[in-house]
Amino acid sequence: MTFKMPLPSIHDWRREFKRLEGAYAPSTMRSYYSDVEIFVRWCEEQGIAPFPASVTSVCRFLEDQAPDRAPSTVRRRLYAIRKAHRLLRLADPTYDEDINLTFRRIRRAKHTRPKQAKGLTRKYLDQFLAVQPDGPWGLRNRAMLSLGYELLSRRSELVALTTDDLEFLSDGTMRVIIRRSKADPFGQGRIAFTSRETTVAVRDWLTWRGPDITFLFCPIYQGRAVDRDLSTTTVKRLVKTAARTAGFDQEIIDAFSGHSLRVGAAQDLLCAGYDAAAIMRAGGWKSVNILARYLEMAEHNVWA
Questions:
Q1: What backbone torsions phi and psi does residue 177 show, to the nearest 5 degrees?
Q2: Per DSSP, what are the bridge partners of residue 166?
Q3: pLDDT tens digit string along 17-57?
Q4: Cβ within 8 Å of residue 125, ≥6 positions away
Q5: What's the whole-number mean pLDDT along residues 7-19?
């Protein structure tokens, strides 16, 4: 007699998702858990079983989510429902043509453009650097702003840098390896370079920080460097605080984000005459379509 392993209980979706840990980035895992939880809660409110879901119930859920959310968020929740069914080894309803048509209607009904962080271009960077305070916080902030801009780094990449990722070159610049990023889940890394001015800023910070700290940028507590990494929100807070200190209006301050360094540097490279291939190489982009979204707000007149 052949015995078959029973399918996991529909209530075990959280346990099944633990199988993904280590294979996906922590941010992706948080999104999966959050989106499936929202779907399960919605099903409970409707009095229907979440797993296995019917095509009709998934369509209704997507339509219910659409009015107050971007299509990208709705699509992400659809993918989470799909992943849950696969992990639970249940029939997947999400490829049905009715699902596709529902999502197309949602996209066509939304005419808003994707929100883009304001680019922290060179003219803003210079002003932000000029208002940094004296002392260790100013040393760290100037190094973070300058390096984040020249590496075209995401905020998660910037705070993940370690001292071992830096190589000081004989011409006074640096060679930096960014070991893992959103677009590089398997850690192959990408190489980037800095100017002499940024290298000086980083050296000044390291001289104060000392040699016995793992991460390149670390917290400062009671005037001393603390051996741990910074949170990604530190980058966002640094950018917005600098904009406020530089005297910008609240509307402009709100438009900046932790992603602004990456956006602004890409826009500056475009205006300097670099082609898409060079900018993609500098910032580690894999898709020209993604890069195009960063560049569309650049004030670059090709006829001037």
A1: -105, 125
A2: 176
A3: 999 988 888 888 999 999 999 999 999 999 999 999 999 99
A4: 145, 146, 149, 261, 264
A5: 74
Nearest to 43 by CA among 23, 68, 60: 60
Tens-digit pLDDT profile for residues 220-230:
999 999 999 99
Residues 47 and 59: beta-carbon distance below 8 Å: no
In the block, tokens 């960077």 appear at 125
Domain ranges (residues) in the chain: 10-109, 122-295
On the question of a cis peptide bond just before residue 52, with omega within 30 degrees of 0, the verdict is: yes
Amino acid 115: pLDDT: 66
Q: What burial letters (b/e) apply to 201-223, b meaning 16+ CB within 10 Å?
A: bbeebbeebeeebebbbbebeee
Query: ∠70-73-77 over CA atoms, to 5°?
Result: 145
The CATH architecture assigned to 122-295 reads Orthogonal Bundle (1.10)
Strands 220-221 and 190-193: unpaired
pLDDT in tens, 254-264: 999 998 999 99
CA distances from 12 to 17, 36, 45, 93, 120 (A): 9, 12, 19, 19, 45
Whole-number pLDDT of residue 5: 45
Domain with residues 10-109, CATH architecture: Orthogonal Bundle (1.10)
Structure tokens at 208: 């104060």
How many angstroms separate the CA atoms of 122 and 268, rounded? Answer: 7
Rounded Cα distance between 68 and 57, Å, is 19
Nearest to 283 by CA among 202, 184, 185: 184
- What is the greatest pairwise CA distance in the chain? 80
Question: Is the distance from CB of 194 to CB of 205 less than 8 angstroms?
Answer: no
